[in-house]
Design a protein that fits this description.
mainly alpha, two-stranded antiparallel ribbon, 2 strands, elongated, binds zinc ion
Length: 76
Amino acid sequence: MSEKKPEPLQRPVAQKKCPVCGHSSYSIDGIHPQCHRAQADKTRLAKHAAEVRANPPEPDASAKKTGFNGAIRFGT
Ligand SMILES: [Zn+2]
């Protein structure tokens, strides 16, 4: 009972918190890869949406206007 537990050689290092989701992350940068992708996609999609709004694509004249559309429901 008089024995003491040995002291740990390394002090526990505080886990890095992901700046996006707030959970602990084991990656080098401290950010989850999926959170990093979501963060990058957010800015990329916003930039793309702004570009499309500035120059809206012209409707395709060669697009087929006839044909069966199964999504259309009759009645009701
Ligand atoms: Zn995260």
